[in-house]
Amino acid sequence: MLGLGTGIHLSIKPRTIVGSYYSNFTSNVNDWTAFSVQDSASDLTLSANEDIPSGSGGGWLKGAYGVTQTNQSGITRSGGDMGLIQMNSGDEVIIKFKVYLRNVSGEDWGGTDNVNITVSYMSDTFSDTEVTQDGEYEFEVTKISDGTSGGSMTIKFNYYGDMPQEDAEFYIKDISLEVWR
After folding, report:
1. For the chain, what is the mean pLDDT?
2. CA angle 12, 18, 19 (to 5 degrees)
3. I need a surface site. Which of 46, 47, 57, 103 has the fewest CB within 10 A?
4. Does position 111 have pLDDT exceeding 70, yes or no?
């Protein structure tokens, strides 16, 4: 039996943020480039400070495909401030962004089914997430790191599910990365 003033005390160390990255696309594409685009990287045009078709005030990165894709493709960013983030095994990595997949013809993404998006940060690959077309989607994934230090992030559209066709457009906004220890 415990007496007055005695008890079990647990020492819980508070989590702290050890690194972060945020993309603001109001003035430029922030060094994001085409990733694994068929034919050539120039077949995915990226432009900054765009607005989604339903209107939200701009600040979106727009990607427009010039050729149909049959492999994984998307966007990537390497180095810079993202490369300075140091991670340890067991750190919690949180990635968030908003995405909008435009399907004007009903076939811009190979149909109207969901599109699978995978995000990777260095060697950590986050689970696939299904995203609906013609609507704004808030993407958020969390994973415990294997300990590889920072460097590059890739957001890609996967083989399974609908794929970008010629004239497919996507919009991405507010990409953020946080590493907590």
Report:
1. 85
2. 150
3. 57
4. yes
